[in-house]
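Take a specimen:
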Amino acid sequence: MNITFPLLSDDVLTKIVDDMNNRGFGIAVDCIDPGSLTSLRSFIENKVADNGGEYIAFAGVERVRGTCLENLPSSPEFIRAFKVIYEKGTGKTAPSVPFYQLLRCLSGKSGDKHAFFFHYDSYVVTALIPVIIPLDGKSGDLIMLPNTRKIRWTYVRNLIDKVLLDNKLSQVLLKYLTSSGRLQATKVRLRPGNVYFFWGCRSIHANEPCDPEKIRATALFHYVDPHASSWLRGALRGKTMQHRY
């Protein structure tokens, strides 16, 4: 299925970057047409049903062929939006690198395991495309502590942040503080059709739980991993894989 992503003007993209810097996220309104969303929803509902009504995710293009997510990452207008946002936000020339894309479908009891997992993305720009969002009850809102750090251009500094954040104590504490309102997090109610941009590698973020009998599905596109060529990350990942298997 082909999809036409609108050509966003420089003024619109400048406003998105300003919002990303000032409130944590910027919105490209009504960029995904209803027909594409309807077809993608059917795809997701069938896949979730085949999986017993539980959480399922699809990384890359191969497993979403036949949906609008197959052609969206090759859309010149879509690519341009990311490049302009990256350049306006970082002051650096945008590289021609592929997206890392993921389709997450929260449903069932296993969906709760993927809620309140606070993290930084490995990529500079993240775009979140809501596909199915429950209209009532627990809808899995995006919650974020926006722009809590600068871009870590070196992997060592990024690794230190990851160790401090990705541990049980930090996760439990952040869940308690944000759920109780003691820490004022930014909550984003998502609307299908819009595209939500934020600095993924600078913002601590997670999603709230979704009612288990419902589906909360979002597509994510990540652009520019500053540490893609880091030998240290490669060595650590290789060691982790050896221990895991």
About this structure: Helices lie at 10-22, 34-50, 68-71, 76-90, 155-165, 168-180, 231-244. The chain is about 35% helix and 20% strand.
